[in-house]
Amino acid sequence: MLQDIMDRPSVSPKTPRILAVDFWRGVCLLMIFIDHIPGNPLAAVTLRSWGYADAAEIFVFLAGVSAFLSFGRFFDSGDYADGFLRCAVRTWQLFRAHILLVFGIAAIVGGYGLFADASPFIGEFNLDPLFHDPGLALPYIAVLRYMPSMSDILPIYILFVAGFPAMWFLMRRSPFLLLALSFALWLTANISGYNFPNYPEGRRWFLNPLAWQLMFASGMAVAAYRQKLAPLARSNLLLAACIAVATVGVVAAAPWTHYKPWAAYRVFHFKYELMMVHKSNLFPPRVSHFFALLVIGLRVLPSHSPFWETRFARALITTGRHALPVYCAGVLLSLVIYMLLQTRQANTAEILLVNMAGAALLIGLAALLEKIRSRGKAAALMRIA
After folding, report:
1. DSSP code of residue 262
2. Quick one: CA dihedral 317, 318, 324, 328, positive or negative?
3. Could you give phi then psi for residue 35, rounded to 5 degrees?
4. Are 275 and 285 in contact (CB under 8 A)?
5. Domain boundary assignment for the chain
6. 3-state secondary structure of 40
7. pLDDT 10s digits, 194-235
């Protein structure tokens, strides 16, 4: 997955984007879109049905990688003012996107209420405070004290990008210091269960930032010390161990149980759903499963693979390059699809068709944004000339 990162020299102000990071982020965006449609049969083929971890771990880890490559180069060169400014600007962009996403979710559910009873969806997506007590909900939204369902990832990303300078200084003092503190915080969150509050009272953040910062910090460390980690990633012994861990995850998840003839056949007879409940605090099996997949991905798709030049890969690379708008559009689109599917009994073929159409729209949106960006750069060059 990140072999391209491992093989690159030290970060410089002119460091280009890394294809592997954008590709896997594009894959995650499509999986998140699919997984955000409750009861979606296509979720049987996404990562969460094949082990403990799912697209969220990859997405947050790659956010750490991308943040280091985007901001770390300015801190590395001693341009701290520019580094702080870029982190602040990105934090503001994420905050604005989160606010727009929350109101987009509310607008879709409220619009549905013009044609049918939307009260079940209002309760399901924790929109009661916004619709029935906006005077309290609105300021709580502004301080990340209240978040409706399906608006979970951006708030932790806001905190992590805002805290990037502090994490960078810790890592430059010693990478082991950053990872040790990150691990201790993750362990504390898992043992104590402490989490940030969400409104109404009794709710908590779905993704506990005290735990999930481990993924972000690990991504930073991998991006910063990729050359030193390259020999480890090429170890056949480590690869064998990671394949074993991933295999255990597949057996535990039992993806074949999504199909009725084999629904009762499990090797491990325990409630796998309990592991999904522990997603909030990034339960240890999820961490081990993710890092196993990371090493396997490094070996399956190295940086010199011709796969990166294929049209399929390029489409997903473009999608990952515009992660923020595509993520927000995917959340809203998945909500629309879910509500529409609740109004009628769609068959499997219709559901699959809707999923494919939604994925095509997201990829098309990214292609459009890329075209607009390239035209803007071309216009800027013409003005300079």
Report:
1. G
2. negative
3. -70, -20
4. yes
5. 3-384
6. coil
7. 999 999 888 999 999 999 999 999 999 999 998 888 888 889
